[in-house]
Amino acid sequence: MLNIVIFGPPGAGKGTQSKLIIDRYNLTHLSTGDILRAEMANKTPLGIEAKNLIEKGELVPDDIVIGMVRNKIDSEAGSEGFIFDGFPRTIEQAEALDDILGERNTPISAMISLEVEEQELIDRLLKRAELEGRKDDNIEVIQNRIKVYNEVTSSVAGYYAKTGRHRSVDGTGTIEEIFGRISSIIDEVKKSS
Ligand code: AP5
Ligand code: MG
Fold first, then answer.
1. Which residue puts its alpha carbon closest to atom 21 of ligand 1?
2. Protein residues with CB under 6 Å of any ligand 1 atom
3. Is residue 192 part of a domain?
4. Alpha-carbon distance 61 to 190, whole Å?
5. Ligand 2 mean position, distance from CA 100 (Å)
6. What residues pair up with 168 in beta bridges, in sequence order?
7. Nearest ligand, CA of residue 59?
8. Which of 44, 117, 136, 143 is the 20 to 30 Å CA partner of 128?
9. How many CA atoms lie less than 13 Å away from 39 in the CB half-sphere?
10. Domain for residue 178, yes or no?
11. Domain that holds residue 83
């Protein structure tokens, strides 16, 4: 199995690159943001609970997202591996993910961190707001999402760096150029595992 975390601030291109990665490497896309938006659309109890937080750009509690991830991993037992997109976002989530995967003997091989400057993130998300109308893509909420990323989530990169699994990628340029950079890392990781 090949398990990779794709990491970066809101608008860094995690979702965009995940789609390309799962096609090339035959992996399963596990996006906690996508799962939460589906729960919201279906008005499930979880979706109703999460809606308020998501629409403010705050994090959903760790126990909720960790449970969601555990269920998804179990329901895709035949998968060749996962791309974790938008998870982990806290040290607690990162530790839980290592535990869940440790029990299954299939660790995270690498975290690929997309580096993009703040103004570019804001420009991308405001543009997406016009195209897709995601509720959390408005300037106030975007700014709070970036703040939460800087104050809480960015430290997760250090967690992976400590165990030699953190890889930084320039997240600017065309989607294809960025995918080229990511693919070289994944090819390298595959060879050495
Ligand atoms: P989530 O859905 O994960 O959102 P996010 O992290 O804010 O990131 P985005 O999905 O906005 O950006 P992305 O990096 O995927 O970029 P994309 O490829 O779309 O989380 C949403 C919320 O759910 C959180 O705020 C939180 O409340 C909750 N949540 C989720 N996970 C959680 C967790 N683990 N714990 C707690 N709470 C959690 O690209 C963005 C735009 O840019 C697109 O329009 C795209 O077309 C464009 N674009 C992409 N690449 C390029 C490029 N190279 N050049 C120009 N434009 C580009
Ligand atoms: Mg996304």
1. 33
2. 8, 10-16, 32-33, 36, 53-54, 57-60, 65, 86-87, 89, 93, 124, 128, 136, 145, 175, 178
3. no
4. 33
5. 23
6. 113
7. 1
8. 44
9. 20
10. yes
11. 2-187
Q: Are 169 and 178 in contact (CB under 8 A)?
A: yes
Q: In a structure prediction context, what are the per-residue pLDDT tens digits for the chain, which is 193 residues long?
A: 999 999 999 999 999 999 999 999 999 999 999 999 999 999 999 999 999 999 999 999 999 999 999 999 999 989 999 999 999 999 999 999 999 999 999 999 999 999 999 999 999 999 999 999 899 999 999 999 999 999 999 999 999 999 999 999 999 999 999 999 999 999 999 998 7
CA–centroid distance, 189 to ligand 1, in Å, is 24
Residue identifier of the C-alpha nearest atom 8 of ligand 1: 10
Tokens matching residue 13:
């291109």
Q: Does any domain span residue 72?
A: yes
Ligand closest to 7 (CA) is 1
Residue 49 is part of a domain; what is its CATH number? 3.40.50.300
Sheet with 166-170: strands ordered across: 28-31, 82-85, 3-7, 108-115, 166-170
Residue 36 CA to residue 65 CA, distance in Å, equals: 9
Is the CB of residue 5 less than 8 Å from the CB of residue 110? yes
Q: Is residue 81 in some structural domain?
A: yes
Rounded distance from Cα 150 to ligand 1 centre (Å): 14
